[in-house]
Amino acid sequence: MKKILFVLFLAALFAGCAKRAVIVPEKHIPIEPVVIKEIDTDKEIFGFLTVNFDFDRYEIRPDMQQAIEHNVYLLKKYPQLNIRIEGHCDERGTEEYNQILGEKRAQAVKEVFESCGISSSRIKTISYGECRPLLLDYNEEAWAENRRAETNSIVKGTDDLGGWFEIWDIIK
Length: 172
Hints:
Elements: H1 2-15, E1 51-52, H2 65-77, E2 82-88, H3 95-115, E3 123-129, H4 140-146, E4 148-154, H5 167-171
Parallel strand pairs: 2-3
Antiparallel strand pairs: 1-4, 2-4
């Protein structure tokens, strides 16, 4: 019985590996990039920018001011966007501590947005603590990237589990 199953397995394996004909186009046709809409500023090319933090801190660093200004620019230009600010931490510290620190980071970014005229009704915050690292390495470079607040678009009126879309979906 085992031999029969083994033979059938090998037959199925080799049958799936049959060679297929490769079609090669006769002439190379260059593909031009598709322009969806005219972009009037370079600020719109990349969507929202991440705000990074120092170790064990939730104050906005001076070098993150440009990212904040960029995100405020997008929020003012597209007032129909609602956002969720996600606070993240590196893996050092307890889960409970990092959960609280992630919330403080998200709240710090929210407060800056509100001080720039963005309505608090458009902003939700959540902390993922150390649960969603950007980089998995165990070194200072990875930890520095993981200490962040990310701004993401959400669909108004949906629950926290769904309704995500990219900023480009709403401005096309």
